[in-house]
Amino acid sequence: MNPEPSNAYHRIADDTFVASELTRGPWSPDHQHAGPPTALVCRAIERAAAAQGLTHLARLTANLLRPVPLGELSVAVDEDYAGRNAAHFSARLSGGGKELARFTALMQREVETPTPPGTPGHPLPAAPRRPGDCEAFAMPFAGRQITYADFVETRTAEGRPWAGPCSVWFRMRHPLVAGESPSPYQRVAVAADSGNGISAVLDFSRYSFVNCDLTINLLRRPVGDWICLAARTQLGGNGCGLAESALYDEAGLIGRATQSLAVRLRSSPA
Questions:
Q1: Could you give the CA distance from residue 159 to residue 195 in angstroms, rounded to a whole number?
Q2: Residue ranges making up the domain that contains 20
Q3: Which helix (H) or strand (E) holds 184?
Q4: pLDDT above 60 (res 1)
Q5: CA distances (Å), 106 to each of 12, 48, 89, in order?
Q6: What is the pLDDT of residues 228-261, one digit of tens each?
Q7: E-assigned strands of 130-220?
Q8: Which of 13, 21, 50, 193 could form a disulfide with 35 if both were Cys (CB 3.0 to 4.6 A apart)?
Q9: Residue 1 belongs to a domain
């Protein structure tokens, strides 16, 4: 196996990047896991919103049009509307002469507004266990070649990964872009696309259950390096399904993520 890269992407221009093997996903050795490219687009949207003084990513939706190949990618961001307290952005991810994914995002202005004592549902719930109290586990596609499994560290907080509902902590082992420290929102984006994997209810060798989209909703700015997904997968019996993840940092609940799944029986075992 080649030496492990030191980052997920290397920037070659303001809006152009080259992906490393750390972005490789589980479905094909030639395609990226959707987490890192979603985080790359998140980075570009955050930078565009900063000009308006908008610093909270309230929602990010990725419509995944095609598999994202390993290689060169470009990101383009448009400001669709900017108001006093919020702005809507759209973005496109392209590579190999094709549009690969489209994104929309809502960025909000943050103001200090303490939650009154006794507010129902508050303080917000915590993750099942803190990462320091959890056991490390290896993703089933780890070890054969450099992949996303080498990009993140994972620890089980509840349940058993790849065997139904479970909770797993994620922490990035490497920078997203060379020479940069990832933002809290980029850390969430890297992890949130893994909900359908860790909560898988079908045999990976017999079925594929690729997500066609990803929506992340966040109620506050995450803190710290660790992001926890409390994930579950539900199947419709019609080749479709839904993965849902409650998202936590070490201080408590931060939001939710959903993924629409295309469930297919493999023509031959993986």
A1: 13
A2: 9-110+130-265
A3: helix 184-192
A4: no
A5: 28, 12, 7
A6: 999 999 999 999 999 999 999 999 999 999 999 9
A7: 135-136, 152-159, 166-172, 207-211, 213-218
A8: 193
A9: no
pLDDT in tens, 160-213: 999 999 999 999 999 999 999 999 999 999 999 999 999 999 998 899 999 999
Chain centre to alpha carbon of residue 255? 13
The Cβ of residue 5 has, within 10 Å, a number of other Cβ atoms equal to 18
Name the residue among 176, 178, 177, 159 with its Cα closest to residue 168.
Answer: 159
Please write the tens of the pLDDT for every residue from 101-151. 999 999 999 999 999 999 999 999 999 999 999 999 988 877 779 999 999
The rounded distance, in Å, linking the Cα atoms of 135 and 66 is 35
pLDDT of residue 52: 92
User: pLDDT tens for residues 151-161?
Assistant: 999 999 999 99
In eight-state DSSP terms, residue 202 is S
> Residue 28's domain is classified under what CATH number?
2.40.160.210
Amino acid at 171: R
Find out whether 142 and 128 touch, Cβ atoms under 8 Å: no
- In the predicted model, what is the mean pLDDT of residues 208-223? 97
Evaluate whether 25 touches 33 at the Cβ level (below 8 Å).
yes
- Spatial separation of the C-alpha atoms in residues 225 and 132, rounded to whole Å: 12
Distance CA 92, CA 35 (A): 15
161 lies in a domain? Answer: yes
Cα–Cα distance, 106 to 220 (Å, whole number): 13
* The length of the chain, given as a count of residues: 270
71 Cβ partners below 8 Å, 6+ apart?
A: 18, 19, 95, 96
Distances (CA, A) of 70 to 29, 59, 85, 87: 9, 26, 37, 31
* Rg of the chain (C-alpha set): 18
Asked whether residue 124 is domain-assigned, the answer is: no
